[in-house]
Amino acid sequence: MKHPLTGILPVAPTPFHDDGSVDTEGMTRVLECMIDQGVDAICILANYSEQFVLSDAERATLTKVSLEHVAGRVPVIVTVSHFSTQIVVDRAREAEAMGAEMLMMMPPYHGVGLVPAEAGIFEHFAAVSDAISIPIMVQDAPLSGVSMPVPLLVRMAKEIENVSYFKMETPFAADKLAALIEAGGDHIVGPFDGEEAVTLLADLDAGCTGTMTSALQPELIKPIVTNYLAGDIDAALTQWRECLPLINHENRQCGLRATKVVMKEGGVIGSDHVRHPLKPMSDRTRTRLLQLAAERDVIALRWGK
Fold first, then answer.
1. What percent of the chain has pLDDT over 90?
2. Would you give the DSSP letter of residue 216?
3. Fewer beta carbons under 10 A from the terminal one: N or C of the chain?
4. Is 219 left (phi over 0), alpha (psi -120 to 50) or beta?
5. Looking at residue 164, what is its pLDDT?
6. Which pTM does this prediction carry?
């Protein structure tokens, strides 16, 4: 990657048919819609892609389909998280060989009773870095239940060659981002916001240079980042206020189902199916979601019509 990645790097949902099988044609339509949304990169196989309900064979297929379809038009970030260090190394090598320009990974975790010590976390990321030559984004999220304090993250950034991007989703993310940037200096190439941009303004104030949201409304969230980084804080704040009702509804009520529901309504995909044990969205939540999306004329709601 020639220049540091900034801006908006949304997570692509994984579309399924109504019977639960992977919809590879739908996947290409999702990617095309996201490119039309003006995204700066696309992340696949993340938690909002339902990576935890995909088989290894399905992961491989989706990686191949996505990288071949995007064909370098925007960078593709492949999530390779797993508890097993060897599996993550294998996934990382495969993703790089297929054309991924960045990897994202969480620390190894498998429930609260099976969390490695800091040395194990460091070694986990170091093993992946030794196997590849593209940047690694560390995803620091409450989902893992793994604590990665700022001194550990700074050590990783300074001592592990390819660890240079960080997606912060922990409580009080802005404070942690600010501390990370101050302590890590130039080693922190890409400090990023997450969690559907629900804390984006605070995180930009803290020094983040981009956000990884869902693919629900990236064309509306991106100007918040670009205006802020250009020094037009008032414009960023105005756009933030416009986006916030939909951000909040997605983050607090819908979760990963939001983008699928809107993309189905907009003709991008044929089904908003989520795999069990996840459950479909309630009609009440769906109605409010579609109202908020329509009021903002999001691209995903009209892309396929």
1. 94
2. S
3. C
4. alpha
5. 97
6. 0.97
**Sign (positive or negative) of CA dihedral 12, 17, 21, 23:** negative
Sequence-separated (6 or more) residues with CB below 8 Å from residue 85: 108, 123, 124, 127, 128
Q: Please report, for the chain, how many H helices and E strands are present, in that order.
A: 11, 8
Which residues, listed in sequence order, are joined to residue 11 by a DSSP beta bridge?
43
Q: Which residue has the tokens 């579609």?
A: 290
Determine the straight-line distance between the first and last CA of the chain, rounded to whole angstroms: 35
**Yes or no: is domain 7-232 CATH 3.20.20.70?**
yes
Q: pLDDT tens across 235-280, in order?
A: 999 999 999 999 999 999 999 999 999 999 999 999 999 999 999 9
**How many Cβ atoms from other residues are within 10 Å of residue 24's Cβ?**
15
Average pLDDT over residues 146-158: 96
| CA-closest candidate to residue 221, choices 190, 189, 194 | 194
> C-alpha distances in angstroms, 84 versus 63, 104, 106, 109, 121?
19, 15, 12, 9, 11
Range 185-197 average pLDDT: 96
Domain residue extents for the chain: 7-232
